[in-house]
From TrEMBL, chain A:
Pfam families: DUF6286. Residues 70-172 form the DUF6286 domain. InterPro entries: DUF6286. Keywords: Membrane, Transmembrane, Transmembrane helix. This is DUF6286 domain-containing protein. The chain crosses the membrane at residues 7-32, 63-82.
Length: 179, 219
């Protein structure tokens, strides 16, 4: 989302500047050329004739309004969601800030969980507040396997100098078929 | 009452509070997108409000009579004609404001990030300049030698007055992260601070896993 914002920001800025330039040019041109009804760059007299004959309830107006509102909503979402998403770790000194991406933590935990006996595969989702592990166990797995996996994840988290320890949720699925 | 922890300087430079160092280190993590985000949200809210109000007007929420009026209302045209100079001046002011905000925003977004050189005090008539790339490359080379670190990249960021360091470490899967960070501080950053003559150097470290080295598929 930050990349999208980086792309959109200069485009919107340039569009705003271009609109401003056109407004200034047209207003000054209309001011100086009082007897001329045509626009210098923008055919605003055609537009004026058109919108004088269109009412608010006529077909293109609601559609355009909804499109503008949707565009605005998307911009708001891009602005709000373009936050840094990272896991903060405690640095060895106050002047050192250490972060890592959630996918890095997910990969470390996933590797640790998959190395557990009786676990066939695992998918891990990590956010700064929560770690969710969905592990597939071979059938006839031990009943305490869930606790074992939970312990492995806790062990992994203990090894990291996490600034804020996320909650851990482990879900086990039994895999059907031969081992 | 507690006093903030400060970092002293053997050269007698002013002490920098710990909170300031933390703030500078956090700021060095990535280029700030706060202005871009704020302006995007602001423009988005304006468009959302305008679009929603016009849609409500079109669907007759504010009265069917209003919805049946032309978009360019004769009442508004008459009002503008009554004060033509005021309308023109306001329009020009709005246009100039759009140009200033738009160009400032675009220029700020497109401007490359600063990588400040470090200026060391070599005496009354001498200034020793270490280029940002030289300083950063030296740190990266040393950091790359820490056990568990496969690759390292460093960049000087911040300003000439307040430089900071951004370090990215690509770790091996079995790296001991606590040990890597301790060694980075003790062996690399301490040496960098000493050799660059800096009292304190805010550092932002980003940890990644090195995925370029895959284990062999067939033993």
């Amino acid at each position: 989302m930050r990349m999208l914002l980086r792309l959109l920001a200069p485009l919107i800025g340039l569009a705003m500047a271009a609109a401003g330039v056109l407004i200034v040019i047209e207003v000054i041109a209309a001011w100086l050329r009082r007897n001329v009804v045509t626009g210098l760059v923008v055919p605003w007299h055609h537009w004026r004739t058109a919108i004088e004959n269109v009412t608010w309830e006529d077909p293109p107006v609601p559609g355009i309004a909804i499109a503008v509102a949707v565009l605005g909503l998307l911009l708001v979402l891009v602005g709000l969601l373009a936050r840094r998403s990272h896991i903060t770790l405690d640095g060895p000194a106050p002047e050192i800030t250490v972060v890592t991406a959630p996918r890095v933590l997910a990969r470390l935990i996933g590797r640790r969980v998959r190395s557990t006996e009786d676990i066939f595969s695992a998918s891990v989702t990590v956010s700064p507040r929560k770690v969710s592990v969905l592990a597939q166990a071979f059938d006839e797995a031990r009943p305490e396997l869930r606790d074992t996996v939970h312990g492995r994840v806790d062990e992994m988290l203990d090894e990291l100098p996490l600034h804020r320890r996320p909650r851990v949720a482990v879900h086990l699925q039994e895999r059907q078929g031969p081992r | 009452m507690t006093t903030p922890v400060t970092h002293g300087s053997k050269s007698g430079r002013p002490k920098i509070p710990e909170a300031t160092l933390r703030k500078r280190a956090r700021a060095a993590l990535a280029r700030s997108a706060a202005v871009d985000r704020a302006l995007a949200v602001l423009v988005g809210l304006v468009l959302l409000a305008a679009g929603t109000l016009v849609a409500l007007l079109s669907y007759g929420v504010f009265g069917t009579g209003r919805a049946a009026r032309p978009v360019l209302d004769p009442l508004i045209v008459d009002g503008l004609r009554a004060q033509p100079d005021a309308f023109r001046l306001v329009s020009i002011a709005v246009g100039v404001l759009l140009v200033i905000v738009g160009l400032t925003w675009a220029a700020r977004s497109l401007r490359p990030e600063r990588h400040p050189d470090l200026v060391l005090d070599g005496g009354p008539d001498t200034a020793i300049v270490i280029s940002s790339s030289a300083a950063a490359d030296a740190v990266a080379a040393q950091a790359g030698g820490i056990p568990g670190v496969r690759r390292a990249r460093a960049r000087m960021v911040g300003t000439d007055e307040v430089p900071a360091l951004r370090v990215t470490l690509w770790l091996a899967d079995d790296a001991d992260i606590r040990d890597v960070l301790t060694r980075l501080d003790d062996e690399v950053l301490a040496a960098a601070r000493t050799s660059l003559g800096l009292t304190a150097l805010p550092v932002a470290v980003r940890l990644e896993l090195d995925v370029s080295a895959h284990p062999p598929r067939v033993a």
